[in-house]
Amino acid sequence: MNDTQTTRRQGLLAGKVAFVSGAGRGIGAAAARLFAREGARVLLAARTEAQLKAVTEEIRAAGGTADHTVCDLADAASVQAAVDRAVEVYGRLDLAFNNGGVIQHPGPLDELPEADFDRITAVNLKGVWLAMSAEVKAMRATASGGAIVNNSSIGSLRANPVLPVYGALKRAVNSLTESAAVTYGPEGIRVNAVAPGGTVTDMVRAWEADTPGVIDRMKAQTPLGRTADPDEIAEAAAWLLSDRASYVTGTVLRVDGGARA
To answer: CB of 40 within 8 A of CB of 119?
Structure first.
């Protein structure tokens, strides 16, 4: 049996340790469940312990291996402690999905309060930088290489007048992703991003509540004629993290139903 056949039988991420931020709900929770089904041991991180505990228990009940830790992505010590926890529990770190983030209140950039700008930037950009820095150090210390996937957005790939700061910060994440791929490629650490299109998460439902009709507009702008399920974004992240994507790095992969085609 060749290596690819063995991986398929054992699971896409068999034998790996994965760190997932924003894992209490939405895409992060879907990713944590999927990664565990695909054979990874998963450390879930987010701000809300009750959500983390529920997803962790669900994974364990299904036969997977998971643990969790509370993490505030805007706090450097908290992020470092969360990544350290993965190594403490499982002895190594191979994979990371930096998914956690917050959305801005929809509207023109001049109407966003400065305090909101600072909060969104601290989580959506600084938090990703903090996580990547800690993850690279952990991978260097405990594994021979690794893979990181950052969660971006197709809103980073075009003008985004409704969510201008959110889109700008996700575009910055794309740049961090590409720069890190070049920097750490020689060490065997691959770095990619997924750019989801309209995906029905709690964040998008909140946006819909603020401005009704958003989800219908997403569907209308998507050639496949529908929004994505969080599981579909998780599948793309899992592939990028897996050895089947071994020659893919520095890529921002659109998972958008053709919306940017």
So the answer is: no
Range of the domain at 116: 14-255
Q: In this structure, what CATH number is given to the domain that contains residue 138?
A: 3.40.50.720
CA-closest candidate to residue 252, choices 202, 179, 164, 184 = 179
pLDDT bin (cut points 50, 70, 90) of residue 9 is: low
Among candidate residues 90, 166, 184, 247, the one labeled active-site is 166
Tell me the per-residue pLDDT of 52-64, one tens digit each, with 9 for 90 and over.
Answer: 999 999 999 999 9
Span 58-111, pLDDT tens digits: 999 999 999 999 999 999 999 999 999 999 999 999 999 999 999 898 899 999
- 166 included as an active-site residue: yes
Please list, residue by residue across 99-125, b when 16 or more beta carbons sit within 10 angstroms of its beta carbon and e when fewer do: bbbbbbbbeeeeebeeeeeeebbbbbb
Q: List, as own/partner pairs, every contact residues 4-12 make where C-beta atoms lie below 8 angstroms and the sequence separation is at least 24, other chains included.
A: 4/244, 7/242, 7/243, 7/244, 10/39, 11/37, 11/38, 11/39, 11/40, 12/38, 12/39, 12/238, 12/239, 12/242, 12/244
Q: At what angle do helices 127-142 and 164-184 cross, to 10 degrees?
A: 20
Within 10 angstroms of residue 226's Cβ, the number of other Cβ atoms is 13
Give the end-to-end CA distance of the chain in Å, rounded to a whole number.
39
Q: Is there a domain that residue 9 lies in?
A: no
Strand bridging mode 17-21 / 41-46: parallel
User: Does residue 220 form part of some domain?
Assistant: yes
Residue 188 to residue 184: CA distance in whole angstroms: 7
* Structural domain count, the chain: 1
